[in-house]
Design brief:
single chain, 254 residues, five-stranded mixed beta sheet, four-stranded antiparallel beta sheet, globular
């Protein structure tokens, strides 16, 4: 299974076998991390794995799951920090999925004793390990809104563009909120975010993480279909008022 196939078969795993993963997995994970593609290259980030079996990690917060390992992404603060965190973490999630490792985003959780590198703060916790439940599911079983509720097609999309928004549709989000909406032309996709904020236990909403995850799905699907994408912000779109959504960015397709 490759990363693109993992987009359509991944699901959140909430039950894990409390056992160690082989050392070779972490060697390969570290190599994969070195090739991660950031959304915001100007922001420094750091990843650290905590072994709960070795008493290195105690997790606290809402909706936590018990897992043998937790990965924490730390980042410099910045306007795009959440989006960048989601974009980076989803690359790891899909990599682990393709290697038969279960994952689950822990939006309301924190790892006690997780010390952030200088100038950084924790952005998201990811539980992972060998699944003690079904690891994959058929894409039709995912509870996602249909494309007709997510997209407005201003022009007939190419087949490649349709595959891209199908991949975006499959992106996981906090409480399955699916905050993204798309205005689609043949050579560009205007991306919007629903105005309603999602709050977890009094924390700031996690929609930036959600949008980053979704944008990586778009970029991955574009690459799979031999398209190049550029994320830009168009001021003529940003200056307009929209009733139910906020303009987020535009995906230029070549």
């Amino acid at each position: 299974m490759d990363l693109y196939e993992a987009v359509f078969s991944r699901k959140s795993v909430r039950h894990y076998k409390m056992e160690l993963l082989p050392p070779g997995f972490f060697v390969n994970l570290k190599k994969y991390e070195q090739g991660l593609q950031p959304f915001a290259p100007e922001l420094r980030f750091s990843l650290k794995v905590y072994n709960a079996l070795g008493d290195e990690a105690r997790i606290k917060g809402m909706f936590k799951v018990k897992a043998p390992y937790y990965l924490v992404l730390f980042s410099e603060p910045g306007e795009s920090a959440q989006v960048n965190a989601g974009y980076l973490l989803e690359q790891i999630v899909l990599y682990m999925t393709s290697r038969e490792i279960g994952t689950c985003y822990q939006g309301g959780a924190r790892v006690l004793g997780a010390e952030a590198p200088d100038g950084m703060e924790p952005m998201m916790v990811l539980a992972f390990g060998k699944a003690d439940e079904k690891l994959y599911r058929e894409s039709f079983m995912a509870k996602r809104l249909p494309l007709k509720e997510l997209c407005v097609f201003k022009e007939d999309p190419t087949e490649e563009t349709r595959r891209m928004v199908q991949a975006a549709r499959m992106a996981p989000s906090a409480m399955n909120g699916q905050p993204w909406r798309f205005l689609i032309y043949q050579n560009r996709i205007h991306v919007f975010m629903k105005k309603r904020a999602l709050r977890l236990g009094g924390r700031l909403n996690l929609r930036g993480i959600d949008m980053g995850i979704m944008l990586y799905h778009l970029a991955l699907a574009a690459e799979e279909n031999w398209r190049s994408v550029e994320f830009v912000r168009m001021e003529q779109m940003a200056s307009k008022e929209y009733k139910n959504n906020d303009y987020f960015l535009t995906v230029m397709l070549t």
